[in-house]
Amino acid sequence: MTLSINAAFDSGNIRLVGIQGDRVDLEIVRDAESDFYQWFYFRVAGAAGRRLTFRILNAGGSAYPFGWPGYRARASTDRQAWRTVDTRYADGVLEFDWTGDAQVVWFAYFAPYTMERHADLVARIAARPGVTHRELGVTLDGQAIDYFRLGTGKTQVWLYARQHPGESMAEYWMDGALDWLTSPAAERLLSAATVHVVPNMNPDGTRRGHLRTNAAGVNLNREWHTPTLERSPEVYHVLAAMDETDVDFAMDVHGDEAIAANFIAGFEGIPSLKPEQGDAFVAFGRRLAAHTPDFQTELGYERAQPGRANLSMSTNQLAERFGAVSITLEMPFKDHDANPDPEFAWSPERSARLGVSCLEVLDEMIAGR
């Protein structure tokens, strides 16, 4: 049967180079107006009963090639369960195999969270009691920037995800977090805090199948010092809403290509760092590690030197601008090696559960103090 390779759908990304027998050569397409690329998502028709080998020939030139060693691609025949497949990386080529009886199979860098799925999330959460939905503005492609507000408490909490659209685990985290926030378990937190949620900061990049940028090729997490409607309306509108409410605690949810663990990064290099800010950041990480085996504090990024924080990044900007306890959460494209899952690796379900764990810890710190 003739093989057919297609990525012309929501969040899709791949380019067919050639097919030789059961070997398929591919390239990942760069983000528009950008050199970034690493996200892939495509389907294969005519795969039934064949042992296929897929080679991504330009993997060595991707944004984070050091993330490929130890990585395993995801495959699905129903677009619900995404299992890992045997994957190799050598000489700049990412290679993985597939054998199965399904007529159609999908492959992705991580389980996709498409804009259609995002629309389902918005419809589900907006219909629940106690939720206020707003469209903060629109993107360069004209898509809505969706926002939810929950709770009536004094402490202003902001949760936002997918500044980098290829980090789809971040919206699965939001899925779990929003389900918890709209459940009876959240009542104590929502009486002590008002929680503001932007589940997808980069709708255009998501739909276009980008790794890191919006429709203009802009990395949104380098725009928080001077966002503009021309380059980064997503940040412009969200930061304007933050200025309206103030920010006491913020969490920016991401995925990391190389480190096989969940970890947080902070704002220790900001000029106006206060001891109590740093203490609260450390306490959150310590409590989260005690709360769930899916989090640890040993692995992570290097700390910035005093006064050397990059204020174009949201975590640093919010800590400096508002005096907030501002946290970047990173989840792996690989697995959480301290407690690995050989079949699914780090997964949508574990991402959603980590969202719940983070809010349970925040509840302890804000409402239980």
Q: What structural class do you assign from the helix and strand content?
A: alpha+beta
Adjacency order of strands in the biggest sheet: 11-12-14-13-15-17-16
Order of helices and strands: EEEEEEEEEEHEEEHHEHHEEHHEH
The proportion of residues in beta strands is 25-35%
Q: What is the radius of gyration computed over CA atoms, rounded to a whole number of angstroms?
A: 20 Å
In the CATH hierarchy, what is the class of the largest domain?
Alpha Beta
**What is the CATH H-level superfamily of the largest domain?**
Zn peptidases
Q: Mind describing the biggest β-sheet? A: 7 strands, mixed
Shape: globular
Total number of beta strands? 17
Break the fold down into its secondary structure elements and pairings:
Blueprint: E1 4-6, E2 15-20, E3 23-27, E4 41-45, E5 50-56, E6 74-76, E7 83-84, E8 87-90, E9 93-100, E10 104-108, H1 115-126, E11 131-138, E12 144-150, E13 155-161, H2 169-181, H3 187-192, E14 193-198, H4 203-208, H5 233-245, E15 249-256, E16 263-265, H6 275-291, H7 314-322, E17 325-332, H8 348-366
Parallel strand pairs: 3-5, 13-14, 13-15, 15-17
Antiparallel strand pairs: 1-4, 2-3, 4-10, 5-9, 6-7, 6-10, 8-9, 11-12, 12-14, 16-17
